[in-house]
Amino acid sequence: MARFLFVCTLALASFAVTPVSAKVLNPEQAKREEFKPESFTCPLTGKRFKQVVTHPHFPLESYPDGSHPGDEWIDTQIPECPQDRVPILPDYAASMEGEDAGSGRLVYHTYTAEELARIPGLIASEEWADMLGQTRHQRAYWLAKQLGRPSFDRFELLVHSPWSAENDEQKRAALEVLISDLPAIADDLDAPPEYRVFARYYMVDALRQLARFDEALALLDLLDKQVVDAEPGEDPDWAYARGEYSLQQARAIKLKDSDRFAIEALDDRTAGRLCSDLASYPAMRGPNAARSCKAREERLAREDAERGAVRALLDDRAALDMQCDDAAPDARDAILDEACRQALHEADWAKGERLVREQPEQVAAICEAAAEPDRNTVQVSACTSYDFTLGYAVAELLDADDAAFAALCDVGTQLGYGAISHGCKLSSERRDYRRAVDLWQDQASLRTTCRRDRHKWSGDDYEHRDHALWLACNAQEDGEKASYWLDSYGEEGASDPSPLHRAALPYARKAIDTELARRAAQSQQNDLQTE
User: Fold this and answer.
1) Does an H or E element contain 499, and which?
2) Which residue among 172, 428, 448, 460 sits deepest, i.e. has the most Cβ atoms within 10 Å of its Cβ?
3) Pairing of strands 38-41, 48-51
4) Does pTM top 0.85 for this prediction?
5) Are residues 44 and 172 in the same domain?
6) What range does the domain containing 140 cover?
């Protein structure tokens, strides 16, 4: 779910990020966290003002509404003119491009002349006056909607708008607008079809928080039934990641828990903290927390007992096989049915592993023909090995084809998923390691290069640093006396290939050629549109 959100990866530092009443950071708080104010110009008056637009944020954990620890301060990201309270809107698409991409810094929109002509009338309206008591993101969303800003910007502002609510009225207003406006915005996003399905899960959470439980459960059921496939190059796990989210939401809805941080809607680790350490998380524990914590405790005890009963059946496979054969699936109790399912899964997984060893060419053909969502357990087992091996086969071909590597293996591709991305990543690593070994041969020259070009290899910017220099210079600074640690590093799969690797090579060639053709066609289409 978090893939829809522009993740501002900021250091958590020592700031308390347990959600509290929403507010923007005051100067003392900002100074304590070493957040420096930035300068802005009011679009209507031309007056300059300064505002901190950075807030404490921990993106490695997320909550059911898409927020992260620290996002109760997210209104800090919206600069607001002191005199007329006109917000300066973020440009989220631009924030994800250019040199600062991934830094967490937002780029802000410069209002056009047409927009500047409209803003005075908009902020003089009764509707705007009624909005002044809402969150900054809510007001920014309203203005972006009136001005017809891109759907991605409106989506981000809309989803963020409830997070910084200071009271129930602000939260209710933001959630109701989210429910009414999100479908049209999601459908207008320039994104793969599955994104539009995933985006609607935020509506489920909003309905639950508004205690509209029947509607929330009905929408959850509807969304869960919509089949979505990962796009080429996308992480296939995203097609299934909604399963756990849906299960958690369903538990909270059935408990009629409307708390923002409903215990059963949270991941198990977060829920455990809230239920066991009451003193540390008072702001996250809503009025339903005690009741939901008790329900969670009972559920966990029940599930533990059920797992124990299943394990007991699995310990005697001969007896279990007889029970599974004798009882039709619809006649088994839940414990026996789960034990039979696990036993069958283990047997099918072993079949897949045997196929890899004994019939690699058949495995390659099966995995190329069967779409991932349609694979049975035997195929999933075999194709887990094949998909991994295919990436190494792609890398082998790219190692020998500089033109194809240059055409395909940009940073975005290397950070993606699928065989091409995996192969590009491996081939890039091998090229870096080989270049690092070459650099190592002349220690004096390397020492000079490391000092002169330190900006190219030091620091935390993984995407843009020179990885070969990083390897060689770090080794030299660490006092390494030989390059043995570099020799053949990253060369796995490049020598003595397995039968499965050999079977994957023709399909790797096809994958490369297909992607090259696709990109060439896309480039040609872009050129025609430019003309």
Assistant:
1) helix 499-530
2) 428
3) antiparallel
4) no
5) yes
6) 2-190
